[in-house]
Amino acid sequence: MQRTCANPWCNSSFEISSADLDLLEKVSPVIAGIRFDLPAPTLCPDCRQLRRLSYRNERRFYRRPCALTGKECVSLYSKDKPCIVFDQKAWWSDDWNQLATGRSFDPKKSFFAQFHELSLVAPRPCIVNMSSENSLYTNHSAYNKNCYMCINTGYSEDCFYTSDFALRNKNCADCLAIQKCERCYGCVDTKQASFSLFLHECINCTDCAFCYDCQSCKDCIGCWNLRQKQYCIHNEQLTQEAYEATKENLWPKTWDAIEEIDQSFRTLVKKKAIHRHVIMEHCEQTTGDHDFHCKDVRDSYYTCESEECAYCYDTGTVKSCIDANEPYQGELQYESHGCNLGYSLCVCSKCYECSNLLYSQYCWYCKDCFGCFGLRNKRYCILNNQCTKDEYEALVPMIIEHMRNTGDWGQFFPTNLSVFGYNETAAQDYAPITEKETATREWKWHSVPEDKPAVVKVIPAHDLPETIDNVSNEIINWAIECEATKKPFRIIKQELDFYRNMKLPIPRLHPDERHKRRMALRNPRKLWERECGKCGKKIASTYAPERPEIVYCEECYLAHVY
Predict the structure, then answer these.
(1) Angle 479-485-490 from CA coordinates, rounded to 5°
(2) Is the pLDDT assigned to residue 441 strictly greater than 90?
(3) How far are the Cα atoms of 55, 190, 279 from residue 428, in angstroms, in the given order?
(4) How confident is the model over 194-240, as pLDDT tens digits?
(5) Domain boundaries in the chain?
(6) Which of 191, 219, 365, 366 is the most buried (most CB within 10 A)?
């Protein structure tokens, strides 16, 4: 069936297929043996995803006191946020009563209003950073060591400003979605690379710089679509002696050189490189982009080892999920966000190792709970109020019926009830809008000025020494004014050591601006119809038809690169 998105600023047409309805039936929650069917969505897939992401602050860190101990902590929540925030040690302790904020359901009020009231008084952890060492400024991450400003990162060491499903990396900085890399800088969607700079969609490359879609290459600069090559510059094969002589002039040592080479290389890639219509490997009956080892997955992006899913993003090893962002090892999830190792979750955000949860946030190791916030190891709770099994199974159906009457059943938490400003969240990364636009939609906008760094002095970026050899140790006591945004940022000692070891200049752009530019290298999470640039057949691609890149279907692409 065709529907029009209920958001008046969108009004786009979208399809709800029979496969979508079958999957909705499968993920519908079961209480006391009775299935409570979920309704068909009223918003388009893009608006549904953005609504989930509006509850996710990834990169904005603040300092505020722990509400339990009074000690200052690094937090995702600025001081003006009207919620109760505990530092991680306090939140995980037994020094407070998780059920003290419990309340009875009031049929005279909407469920979302009651849940929002609960969410403002129930303690929440200042940050989500599990089992890490010396990695204070690291969020939605786990098992890291000596990492700084890393987001969605795991099992990594000595990394900085690296994010988005970055796993098992060492000594890397300013990277996006890299895995098993070492001593890399500025790389995006790259795996198993080492001693390399500014790689995009590369695998198993060493000592390479400014390369696109290269695999098993070594000592290459400014190349694209190469396989198992060495000593190449701009796809021209050189001798080792000629390469070494030319490399000295091409390997960037100043920020101006990086900017110049990067711009010219991106132009070259648009004109000459062959682009796959979508990146997909070992998949069956799958549509989307950057999907690996998937089966029966529809309209999903950056998914791996998943089966029977639809409208999922950044997922790993999940089954029978629809409208889910960043679940890892889960099954039967609907409208979920950041719920790892979760089974049968309906409209949940940041709930970990839970099962049979509905409309809950920030819960760990819970089972059979409805409308709960910030609980651990609990069962049969409603709005943080402990129930018996019989009470739970009698009351939950009544609340669901109430939500059906108000039109809330099946909907994710409304964006206007998120404590974050839209511009603080991951939603702004994928669909940036202005403060004026958020006001017309009655969403929040964070405009509280950030604390100025306590430094000896602030210097404009263009006054930095051109090469790292001339940078004084005193720079860690300064703030640098970003060339693009004028926002000040600092360099920490470990970061300075990294630049010196890699012989890289000090960046002239704020970390947020560098992240924004890396994100811009990725295609939209949307498919368009266009023709293969080689054989002319119709293909579905994340490259819009008006874009200038040369885009091939899978068969023509493989014939070209191999």
Answers:
(1) 20
(2) yes
(3) 11, 24, 25
(4) 999 999 999 999 999 999 999 999 999 999 999 999 999 999 999 99
(5) 2-46, 457-519, 528-561
(6) 366
Determine how β-strand 367-370 pairs with β-strand 355-361: parallel
The sign of the CA dihedral 504, 506, 511, 515 is negative
Tokens of 217: 């290459």
Percent of the chain with pLDDT over 70: 99
Separation between Cα atoms, residue 269 and residue 484, nearest integer Å: 24
Q: Which helix (H) or strand (E) holds 209?
A: strand 209-212
Give me the residue label for tokens 């990364």.
Answer: 429
Task: Return left, alpha or beta for 121; rule: phi > 0 is left, psi -120 to 50 is alpha, else beta.
Answer: alpha
Has residue 53 got a pLDDT over 80?
yes
Nearest CA to 63 among 49, 73, 50, 48? 73
Q: How far apart are the two ends of the chain, measured CA to CA in Å?
A: 42
Could you give the CA distance from residue 545 to residue 562 in angstroms, rounded to a whole number? 26
The amino acid at 501: N
What pLDDT, on the 0 to 100 scale, is given for residue 248?
82
Cβ 162 vs Cβ 178: under 8 Å:
yes
What digits encode the pLDDT tens for the residues 325-367?
Answer: 999 999 999 999 999 999 999 999 999 999 999 999 999 999 9
Which candidate, 111, 105, 81, 86, places its Cα nearest to that of 97?
A: 86
What are the CA-CA distances from residue 307 to residues 46, 239, 301, 303 (Å)?
21, 47, 13, 10
pLDDT, tens only, 109-121:
999 999 999 999 9
pLDDT in the model for residue 130 = 85
Tokens of 82: 């009207």
In tens, the pLDDT along 367-378 reads 999 999 999 999
d(CA 144, CA 151): 11
pTM of the model: 0.93
DSSP letter assigned to residue 403:
H
**Which amino acid is present at 339?**
C
Quick one: tokens of 484?
A: 């693009």
* Mean pLDDT across 540-557: 97
Question: SS3 for 257-283, per residue?
Answer: HHHHHHHHHHHHHHHHCEEECCCEECC
Nearest to 286 by CA among 315, 262, 265, 263: 315
Mean of the per-residue pLDDT values of the chain: 95
Residue 451 has pLDDT above 70, yes or no: no
B/e letters for 457-487, b = 16+ CB within 10 Å, e = fewer, are eeeebeebeeebeebeeebbebbbbbbeeee
What is the length of the chain? 562
Widest distance between CA atoms in the chain: 80
Pairing of strands 385-386, 379-382: antiparallel
